[in-house]
């Protein structure tokens, strides 16, 4: 496809090929509800000609169809506007070292095995607490994916990875009403998944803990975000310093390079070549070599999050982040969860957020929330139907403490974070 693009007049071209297999089984109340096996494959080609670009894709890999796909991309390029920022990343930035990152652990897990595991998870959850009254089901999945990227610089790189996951959602009821919650796990290796009973019992514990909801006061209080929710806060920071937001001038962190965005004791370190990591890769979506680097060091923003296109728009150099950040880890703090609750004193633990009330242009943050009210450094009762509000820059620079309970199952790995103060709209008792 690269050769055909060159023969047909393209100055540059890039091609991505992918293939994947996903198998999933889901049960509810012990009965099978979902059996799914999906295979997909596809090719996408982008061509650059006279400063213009065009892209086309297909799932049909017959040679004549691949030729037609290249021709369609060239036809599109003839009708697009000139864009001086378009084109491949610089040739000297291409990855030359492609180490094995321990991401490939294929296992032919049968549907029967997935079904049995899902049933074990749900059974453990339903038996984990007598107040568990119903289930929204448990599911287990196995996925294997392969991708190849090549461009006219001569770069050719492949990646392959496996991912196994399990999930359980339960419903509990008592005189106060009904509540639901869940637990899940995801790993590169099937034998490293949490024990089925562990996932089920944890889903039951979380669900039962939400029973007995009471009112809470309205006011300004410290707020502790658990890891699953704290990840979103750091995700908003990453979004605000990403190229697309910056060159559109649609970020509350415009021109913030070298300024404070976290407390002095906090850093964000990206480790894209971490063996076995959830988002590890030796090269980014442009073929640029990845490397360990700090996004934030001791609270100071060290760089932006850029692919080659956004970097050119900003007059900067790519940070090998085409496709996003890879294994970005929050460091600093180091408190246990119990210590954070004690430090909270009187305030709110947020375990769930709802709604889309985050504005990356202004930094305004306002979302529905649920969690637990804390009095005298101890969890007092669960709360729901409340709103938390603040400004992202003040929330991030105003972090009081951080935990050691990192959620390592995702690309952005964050522990519990204690925000010094936010506006909480509850219902006064």
UniProtKB/TrEMBL annotation:
Domain Metalloprotease TldD/E N-terminal: 13-77
Pfam families: PmbA_TldD_1st, PmbA_TldD_2nd, PmbA_TldD_3rd
Boundaries of every Metalloprotease TldD/E C-terminal domain copy: 218-426
GO biological process assignments: proteolysis
Similarity annotation: Belongs to the peptidase U62 family.
NCBIfam families hit by this protein: PRK11040.1
Protein name: Metalloprotease PmbA
């Amino acid at each position: 496809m690269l050769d055909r693009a060159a023969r047909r007049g393209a100055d540059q071209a890039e091609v991505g090929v992918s293939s994947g297999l996903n198998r999933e089984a889901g049960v509810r109340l012990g009965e099978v509800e979902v059996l799914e096996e999906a295979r997909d494959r596809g090719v996408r080609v982008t061509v650059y000609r006279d400063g213009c670009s065009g892209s086309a894709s297909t799932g049909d890999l017959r040679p004549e169809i691949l030729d037609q796909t290249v021709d369609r991309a060239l036809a599109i390029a003839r009708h697009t506007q000139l864009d001086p920022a378009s084109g491949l990343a610089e040739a000297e930035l291409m990855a030359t070292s492609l180490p094995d990152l321990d991401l490939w652990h294929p296992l032919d897990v049968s549907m029967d095995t997935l079904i049995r595991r899902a049933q074990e998870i749900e059974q453990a959850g339903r038996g984990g607490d007598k107040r568990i009254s119903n289930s929204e089901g448990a599911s287990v999945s196995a996925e294997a994916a392969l991708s190849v990227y090549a461009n006219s610089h001569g770069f050719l790189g492949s990646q392959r990875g496996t991912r196994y996951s399990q999930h359980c959602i339960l419903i509990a009821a008592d005189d106060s009403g009904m509540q639901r919650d869940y637990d899940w796990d995801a790993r590169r290796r099937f034998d490293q998944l949490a024990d089925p009973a562990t996932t089920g019992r944890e889903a039951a514990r979380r669900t039962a803990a939400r029973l007995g909801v009471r009112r809470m006061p309205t006011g300004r209080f410290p707020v502790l975000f658990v890891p699953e929710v704290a990840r979103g806060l750091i995700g908003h920071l990453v979004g605000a310093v990403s190229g697309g937001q910056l060159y559109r001038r649609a970020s509350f962190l415009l021109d913030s390079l070298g300024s404070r965005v976290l407390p002095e004791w906090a850093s964000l370190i990206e480790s894209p070549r971490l063996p076995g990591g959830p988002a590890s890769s030796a090269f980014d979506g442009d073929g640029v070599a990845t490397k360990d680097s700090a996004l934030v060091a001791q609270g100071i923003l060290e760089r932006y999050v850029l692919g080659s296109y956004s970097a050119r728009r900003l007059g900067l150099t790519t940070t090998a982040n085409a496709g996003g950040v890879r294994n970005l880890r929050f460091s600093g703090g180091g408190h246990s969860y119990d210590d954070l609750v004690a430090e909270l004193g009187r305030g709110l633990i947020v375990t769930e957020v709802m709604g889309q009330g985050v504005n990356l242009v202004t930094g305004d943050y306002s979302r529905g929330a649920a969690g637990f009210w804390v009095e005298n450094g101890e969890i007092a009762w669960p709360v729901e139907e409340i709103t938390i509000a603040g400004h992202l820059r003040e929330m991030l620079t105003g972090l009081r403490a951080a935990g050691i309970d990192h959620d390592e199952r995702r690309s952005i790995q964050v522990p519990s974070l204690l925000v010094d103060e936010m506006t909480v709209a509850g219902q006064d008792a």
